[in-house]
Every structure is written in structure tokens, then in C-alpha cells.
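Go through this fold for my students:
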Amino acid sequence: MKIYTKTGDQGITGLLGSGRVPKDDLRIEAYGTIDELNAVLGQVRADGLDPASNELAALLQDELFVLGSALADPDPAGRFHNAIADEHVRRLETAIDAIDAELAPLRVFILPGGSRAAAGLHLARTVCRRAERVVVSLARTPGASVPSAVLIYLNRLSDLLFVMARVVNQRAGVADIPWKGI
């Protein structure tokens, strides 16, 4: 089987189940942005993370693949549509709380950066926020079905990526960069 199928040469692509849509369809944009987020996390992992952060990032990559599948499945009764559930959100919240307990309280806004890994996690956070905006747009589209857990997951994930960036800096002995304000 060849990697190219030529089925998308006219700007149309398939969804899970049945149906084909233009490649600029909001659903495609949504799971494409999730794919981009997953790639950014892969880059951060390749650049090097401490073992605990790397393990968590690997789990997040797996879950993002599941989340992308949920978005690619427009049928509310479809096999993947409800693959992201409340338990995934709770796992993110538990991770946020555990990491936040390691950190000093944040008293100023910080700029993305510090160590290379933290900067990459901040980039992942911004891609996650964009993915969340696209998924919100999709969810507001008449007839589009987006599980509520997907929206909540993305909201929590951006928070997790923020605290991960901070803890990665801390574990590397690199200070966060405070915003000097105006």
C-alpha cells in the first residue's frame, strides 16, 4: 500500500465513519490543530525533559491522539466520538495539583521561555489554546457534535502545560522570566 492515496487531491478528505468534507472544514482544522500540538510535544520530548515530565508528556501525546480521533468522528454514536471522558480531565487536574504543589506561588506574570524545554512547553500551551478556540467554534456550528469533555480537557491541558513549563524550569535550575510590565 502506498502512502499517498490521491483521494485528497481535490481538497476533500474523509472523516472517521463515512463522509467527506473540504480540508478547510472546522472539524479538520480542529483535529489538525490537535495533531500540531502533539507534534510540538514530540519536539519538546526530543529536545529533552526530566524523566517525570517526559513520562507525563508521553501520556499526553497518547491522549491527544485519542482526542483527535474523537474530533474526527462526527457521529455521536461513533466508536471514537466519546473516547475522551471525565476521567481524562480528572487525571489532568491531579497532575496540575501535584506539579503546582512543587512550585512557589506565582506573584507576577511570566514570559514564555527559560530553558529550551520550558519554552517548548509554552509553545505547546499556545497551540493548545488555539486548538481550544477552533474546537469551540466547531461546537458552536449547527449540527456539529463535540463532546463536552473534549472542551474541558483542552482547557485543563493548557493549564497543565503552563505548570509543566514552570516546573521544568525549576527542576533545571532556570528561573522563569518575569514580565516587567508597562
In short: The helical segments are 26-47, 51-72, 86-102, 116-139, 148-172. The longest strand covers residues 12-14.
